[in-house]
Amino acid sequence: MDNFISDISGQQFPSEQRILGASIRQPIFKLIKKEYPSFSKDKYIAASELTRFKETYISEFLKDESGQLSQLDQQVINSFKENKVISASLDGDNKESVSVGDRVADKVAEFGGSWTFIISFILFLIVWIAANIFWLNNKGFDPYPFILLNLILSCVAALQAPVIMMSQNRQEDKDRERARNDYMVNLKAELEIRELHEKIDHLIIRKEQELVEVQRDQVEKLSFLLKKMEKIEEAFKNK
Question: Among 16, 93, 123, 160, which residue's Cβ finds the most Cβ atoms within 10 Å?
Answer without folding.
Answer: 160
